[in-house]
Design brief:
142 residues; alpha+beta; Alpha-D-Glucose-1,6-Bisphosphate, Chain A, domain 4; 31% helix; Polyketide_cyclase/dehydratase; START-like_dom_sf
């Protein structure tokens, strides 16, 4: 299993960032490839464009609220997982750390694209872009 971690500092209080992370309907606005998202209790259904077509994935989200950590793992589709961790820097600034866990072969089979180092570089750029999109969304009241 490969793991990638990235972080970004956001100019909002921790509670504001935490709330936005928990609104599934905002996921298409900051997660590349997600076309639609809806919560169903502890499960979230994502319509994701993968390999030139839209596929539905089910994700189980678990909160460790006292630690400000939201973990996720697919329960259908490819085996993927990760976590979002929030750290209050001060009253108006928060660090969001994202961890993404994946099997390189699964990514290629599901989404297509490059393999090896090139795949890792594409995933890293994608994660950085998603974090930047989240920052813009949450800082502008989304």
């Amino acid at each position: 299993m490969s793991t990638l971690e990235e972080h970004i500092d956001i100019s909002v209080p921790l509670d504001t960032a935490w709330e936005c992370l928990h609104r599934a309907e905002t996921y298409p606005r900051f997660l590349e490839g997600v076309r639609a998202a809806r919560s169903e209790g502890e499960r979230t259904r994502l319509d994701v464009e993968a390999g030139g077509r839209t596929r539905e994935f089910e994700v189980r989200i678990t909160d460790r609220g006292g630690e400000n950590v939201m973990t996720w793992r697919t329960t259908s589709g490819p085996t993927l997982g990760g976590a979002f961790s929030l750290l209050s820097l001060d009253d108006d600034h928060t660090r969001l750390q994202a961890r993404f866990e994946y099997e390189p072969g699964t990514i290629t089979e599901t989404f297509g694209g490059p393999k090896g180092f090139a795949q890792a570089a594409v995933i890293e750029r994608g994660l950085r872009s998603d974090l930047q999109q989240f920052k813009e969304l949450v800082e502008h009241g989304g």
